[in-house]
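Box 4.2: Ligand-aware structure prediction
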Amino acid sequence: MSEIILKGIPAAPGIVIGKAYIFGKEELDVEKVMISEEQIPLEISRFEDALIQTRQEIIVLQKKIAQEMGTEHGEVFDAHLLVLEDRMLIEEVISKVKREKQCIEFIFSEVLKHYAGVFSKIEDEYLKERISDINDVGRRILRNLLGKKRKVLSDLEEKVIVVAHDLSPSDTATMHKNRVIGFVTDIGGKTSHTAIMAKSLEIPAVVGLEIGTVQIKSGDKIIVDGSSGLVIVAPDPETLKKYEAQGEKMRGWTETFVSMKTLSAQTLDGKLVSLAANIEFPEEIPTVIDHGADGVGLYRTEYFYMNRRDLPTEEEQFEAYKNLAKSFSDKSVIIRTMDLGGDKFISQFDFPKEMSPFMGWRAIRFCLARPDIFKTQLRAILRASVFGNLKVMFPMISGIEELRKAKILLEEARMELRQKNISYSDKLDVGVMIEVPSAALTCDILSREVSFFSIGTNDLIQYSLAVDRTNEKIAYLYEPTHPAVLRLVKTVIEAGHKSNIWVGMCGEMASEPALVILLLGLGLDEFSMPSASILEIKNVIRNISCAQAKEIADEALTLTTGIEVENFLSRKLKELLPAIYGI
Ligand code: PEP
Ligand code: MG
């Protein structure tokens, strides 16, 4: 068999070579067996036993995950427990057994299939998430009815690269770091829950491969290049050699990078920039510190609201933000207020089905419509700001009016605390994310009313180029180096500096070594990224001068296509650091 190269979307960087393990294709064969009238109560009681057994399994799993990875990861299972209490589903199974007199396994699997069929026709991301919960739990119940043991990723006996159509949050959360050395999925984009988890676990991963589970078989040797999004099946000896060398080189770099930990991110001509971390869960704090970050440039607080039954209280949020503030003492921690909607939904709230959710009721728009939920978060942030150097940042601001409304609510939150004699810090810097083209184009106006900008290129690119960031089919059009993006970024940095405020970037673009040269040349002050990228980027910064970077940026701005810019910058990176990026 000659090698097959599959192109997906890079989800978590690194190269890994290993044996593929197809996960999630296990068929649970269910035979149709007719039963007598007298057997009906017995079948129903078998069903009830299976429900109880499944419930116990999930609770044990939830506790284990919460202990190993933190309570938030464990909360993923709350949705699964809810499925077990779904009266409609249970009643439907019981009445069907009574009516059709067939064994419970068969009836149950038919009901599951029916649900899957109905849900798959609905184009709603939230409901799609629900069907994966129902399927996940349904298979557990079926396994218990059939007396089969569930295959879990934490039970793996050897190191493998997991290949799956999709990975449910519960599957991903049970990945044993030492055994799952990488993974690939057919669907999903860079910002899927799975991709985010892979980055926190530092497992190389590629998503959106489309046909991975068709082209790859269990036991196949595969290479996963999580940095470029390539998966190579049955690699030729030459390819294998190339990637082994690349892997070896990367391990070598890791040593170079580790030596960067205690050094500052300073260019050859003395400009100090800040390298901060993007986090999704407070449990990532030790990793962030371990990678020598200058603080947190983006805390995606919406994860606080996801995978749970209730809304987080002010007290609960206060404790989490306080802990964060204390962990970083004088280092800056930017709390981004909840960015719900788009592709991130919560079960506690009935989000409407929208044709274009990314351009719909999300982030600050949702917050302004629900000041009760928003102000609870703002009060928690204000209170926690006493304990460290917190800053607050609003997502999806499209113009000055939204910013002003958000600031009024922040002021109201302050007043409410004052009335109750609850202490808060007066020194809470307010910033906005520049991720909507209208904000980028009016940033001179916005810059007068905030303390900082953070450019959210993940969204800014999708809106300015009209390319859905989660759609694997048009991922080739998603170009951070497109001249339009470059011009917007330049405009924002210049406007910020003109108003004497600092400008950061927390989109993925800030963690790409070649693009960092350009951004440095454009004058970016803070680069915020997944912690695993920090030392590599520090190495780039420490090996270039601002003057050099500016010259490169000026030339990049004269080019006419995204590809030209990309090639030009990667050539410059290779010239700059040939030992790492090759010549
Ligand atoms: C962005 O849009 O660039 C960003 C950092 O926010 P998120 O990825 O959470 O939308
Ligand atoms: Mg965004």
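In the box above, the bound molecule is magnesium ion. The chain has a mean pLDDT of 88.
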